[in-house]
Amino acid sequence: MSFYRRGIAFFGVVFVGVGIALVVVTAVNGGAAFGYLVGVLFIALGVGRLYLLRARR
């Protein structure tokens, strides 16, 4: 796996982690719709990057 592909995989995992953290923090602090939306979008971004990385093999 090239350095580029490893970097893309790393950032995909980071985006999923940030999204999960946003959803958890939003839930703990009372839950605003914007926090959930942004968290879910970060998770979708990370999963999408990982999916496309795998599909382009």
Provide an overview of this structure.
By secondary structure, this protein is mainly α. The protein is built from two helices and no strands. The chain has one domain (3-55). α1 runs antiparallel to α2 (33-55). The protein is elongated, with a radius of gyration of 13 Å. The N and C termini lie close together (10 Å). The model has no long low-confidence stretch (mean pLDDT 93).
Summed up, what is this model?
With 57 residues, the chain is mainly alpha-helical. The protein has helices spanning 3-28, 33-55.
Distance between the termini: 10 Å
Helical coverage, percent range: over 70%
Helix and strand sequence: HH
Structural class: mainly alpha
**Gyration radius, in Å:** 13 Å
- Unreliable spans are none
Total DSSP helices: 2
Task: Report the β-strand fraction as a percent range.
Answer: under 5%
Q: Give the mean pLDDT.
A: 93
Annotation, overall tally of beta strands: 0
| Total number of domains | 1
Could you give a short account of the major beta sheet? none
